[in-house]
Amino acid sequence: MWPRRVETLLVFGTILFGCASLGVQAQSSDAGRGAQRFMEYCAGCHGADGMGGDKAPPLVSASNSTQLSDSELFRIVHDGTKGGMPPFAQIGDANIRAVVLFLSKLRHKAPPIGTSAEAAVTGDAEAGRALYFGKAECSTCHLMQGKGGFIARNLTAYGRTRTADEILHAITNPDTPLVPSSQVVTVTTRTGQKLTGPLRNEDSFTLALQTEDGRYHLLARSDVTDVHYTEHSLMPRDYSTRLSPKELNEIVSFLIVQSRNPRPDEVEGR
Fold it and tell me: What is the tens place of the pLDDT at every residue in 243-256?
């Protein structure tokens, strides 16, 4: 038989190990929930990777001099800002803490701005420019240097906070992850009208989408008879076969080179 003191230590150790395991599982669960809530509430403005979007600045740059503590991030998400970010107190403290935990994990993985971009240009950037405005048809949806479409994000400064591999992945796997506000839907109204475009917002009472001509349509749920969710964005999903590896590298190189010294009025999100 075990001496009583040893038995006590073994039981105590088992309890501690169990508590630690539960803590790790809970943190992992919170991070997963945080990723879901981030995609649902934040990615539409700050980007799916937290590196900035059309409407808001980056949140996770490792070299960002305005790095915020977890408590400061919690307060901002909860209360909003005077600069225009709305409060998200309505999603609950637990969800906000999960989002902050997810952001903390993203920040620890983020490379310093510019370090990878300088070393990543291995293709012909000028050839990439020609592809961007020509064969690849990127400018149909994306603004670049004040030229192009505006239904998708401005890419003028896109390569400034991303590695070449990240940019290539975004081009060849555009829906991984799929930002909710970019998902294409087809809506049928009571009058028989069909509208197709990115779903910008929806709730229990309204649905807003943007058609490819740039027009926004705000519809009452009572006027909608059917919504077909495509589970993909407007971004073509065949670039890995439509373009050669050399051409893809040239477009990536163009995006990186262009992002190094954009004019103030060309910066993403302005």
Answer: 999 999 999 999 99
Domain extents for the chain? 1-110, 115-174+238-266, 184-229
Architecture of domain 115-174+238-266: Orthogonal Bundle (1.10)
Within 13 Å of residue 194, how many CA atoms lie on the same side as its CB? 5
| 202 SS3 class | strand
Measured between alpha carbons, how far is 222 from 233 in angstroms, rounded to an integer?
25
Collapsing DSSP to helix, strand or coil, 160 comes out as: helix
The share of the chain scoring above pLDDT 90, in percent, equals: 33
**CB atoms near residue 31 (< 10 Å):** 16
Is pTM beyond 0.90? Reply is no
Classify domain 1-110 at the CATH topology level. Answer: Cytochrome Bc1 Complex; Chain D, domain 2 (1.10.760)
**Do 1-110 and 184-229 share a fold?**
no
pLDDT tens digit sequence for 79-88: 888 767 788 8
Tokens of 145: 């240097």
* Mean pLDDT estimate for the chain: 79
Identify the residue whose tokens are 């620890």: 108
Residue with tokens 């997810």: 102
SS3 174: coil
**Contact residues for 121 (Cβ-Cβ < 8 A; gap 6+):** 164, 253, 256, 257
The verdict on domain 184-229 having CATH code 3.40.50.360 is no
Which residues neighbour 49 within 8 Å (Cβ) at sequence distance 6 or greater? 60, 106, 162, 166
Alpha-carbon dihedral angle through residues 249, 250, 254, 257, given to the nearest 10 degrees: 70
